[in-house]
From TrEMBL:
A GO cellular component entry from the record: membrane
Organism ancestry: Eukaryota, Fungi, Dikarya, Ascomycota, Pezizomycotina
Source organism, top-level taxon: Eukaryota
InterPro entries given in the database record: Ig_E-set, Rho_GDI, RhoGDI_dom_sf
Subcellular location: Cytoplasm
Keywords for the protein's UniProt record, in alphabetical order: Cytoplasm
Protein's recorded name: Rho GDP-dissociation inhibitor
Gene Ontology biological process terms in this record: Rho protein signal transduction
Length: 226
């Protein structure tokens, strides 16, 4: 996997500096007087990729607006479900191949050996069809800032594509929202006799602090039919 480090390098979120984000506790302890226009603008740049960003950038200076802002970040809603015995911030629970009109092909990554088996059990994708990858994950302990998915695809050792997709920033899951689900951008499989065959991919889930949450190799087959 070390051979893929340079290929899987990411670009950073605009306006974000490593180590700049606040912890969940710091966000929850913010006082009304701390939310000035300038600070709200800075926070917006930092948190602009949150799944549920506050509707208003400039907040009213009262408790109600502050609480609404915190709630928009997923803070203070429901009971935390973080596992104190699991230090991971982001747990990728499953990956699925979604094609309209067909049942999802889902890989449960909580199963022992599931990640290692991905490169030996290729997905089959019909040439020319439109498909998307779907990820289910859980965030715990701390705010997850700027989660990205990076993918490099090769065929016969030659790189044919590199894609990076911003998945967003997320507060820790609670009983009100136990998991997050993210559908990636739709793609179209190549078609034609020369495009058929096996492809090898390396993928990485990484955040703006350059922390890897999952890195794995997998394969897929482009075939004439399912």
């Amino acid at each position: 996997m070390a051979d893929h480090e340079d290929e899987l390098a990411t670009t950073r979120t605009d306006g974000f500096k490593v180590g700049e984000k606040k912890t969940v506790e710091e966000y929850q302890k913010l006082e009304d007087t701390e939310i000035t226009y300038i600070q709200a603008t800075a926070l917006y740049l930092l948190l602009s990729t949150f799944e549920t960003v506050a509707d208003q950038l400039v907040l009213d200076q009262n408790d109600e607006s502050l609480n609404r802002w915190k709630a928009s970040l997923g803070l203070g809603s429901g009971t935390p479900i973080s596992n104190p015995n699991d230090p991971r911030t982001c747990i990728i629970k499953s990956l699925a191949l979604e094609v309209a009109g067909r049942e999802d092909i889902t890989i449960d990554l909580s199963e022992p050996g599931a990640v290692d088996s991905l490169k030996d059990k290729p997905f089959t994708i019909k040439e020319g069809c439109r498909f998307r990858i779907k990820a289910t994950f859980q965030v715990q302990h701390d705010v997850l800032s700027g989660l990205k998915y990076v993918q490099v695809v090769k065929r016969k050792g030659i790189r044919v594509s590199k894609d990076q997709e911003m998945l967003g920033s997320y507060a820790p899951n609670t009983t009100d929202k136990p998991v997050y689900e993210k559908k990636f951008n739709e793609e179209e499989a190549p078609c034609g006799m020369l495009s058929r065959g096996r492809y090898n991919a390396v993928s990485r889930f990484v955040d703006d602090d350059d922390v890897d949450h999952l890195k794995f190799e997998w394969t897929f087959e482009i075939a004439k039919d399912w």
